[in-house]
Sequence to fold (318 residues):
Amino acid sequence: MTPPPPPFRFTRGKDEVAFDPAFGDEDLVATRAALSQGRWTDTRELLARTGDNWDRRGHRLVVLAEGKSTAAWAGEWLLAEPESTDATSLAACAAVFRAVNGRQSAESARELCLRAARLTPRDPSPWLALLILARRTGTDDEQVRAFDQVRGRHRGHHHAHYLMTQCLAERQKTDGDDPFHEVFEFTEWAADEAEPGSPLAVLPLVALVERYRVLAGAGVLPGDPTGQPYWGSPRARQSVRNAFDWWLEWDGRDHPRLLLDLNHLAFGKFHAGETVEAAALFNRIGTQATWAPWSYPSRDPKKAYRAARNYALGFGSR
Fold:
């Protein structure tokens, strides 16, 4: 069993918690900055290098597409290279975020995604974009259809499984802490079906956290997760234990969304009262916190992360 990584050199008061959706991908950070200034050739080169690493390609497309000026620059790219499938995919993803933010119709974004899907039939990324759109504007059936299309192209697609977990967790908002809710069945199935060592082992814990977000948002559970019996249930303890075991056995492979898993695991460990293990995770994460789950249900994520980390590392009280 591989031991946890060396401690993060933490000095209280001298760190700055980052919430960058690039999750430490330095090439992506540089390309995003170039694209914001209209240098779309850097994006072309990045996506070409990414190839058919579908998790990384989807991650990079989504992060780039969230930029305020991405749709315009993707359009410039398409004018210069109308046959570029990468430009088409980026334009489609950017249209989805415009639609989600009310700046474009959902139908026009959907058409662009379907066009990208036809041009790149092996790539799950246009369907990932459709799943993002369906979560915000579509029906339950549209969500399932988009997820099935992604999974049919990449069985272990990380982002798509997270999104589907969120979609399912958001159903039946006021039924209380239902241990038989469909989100738990889905995530346990997905974790069982995943390849050995897959980060999808964390998915049942993600379901627990997402279900907490929904129930707390509806007023069924308290808005402050600290010290709640919810985290001490047999399901919660089993989900946290299995996810932590996965991390201990993680073979060091690079995964573009690993930080999201580690932040969920630190969140689960901390609120389950297992602060020693949480401290090891905080050491690994350092300043690279993720917006989810520390913002759940409607908290300041920076304050929530720092408070949990400081307590776990012995720098403060709850």
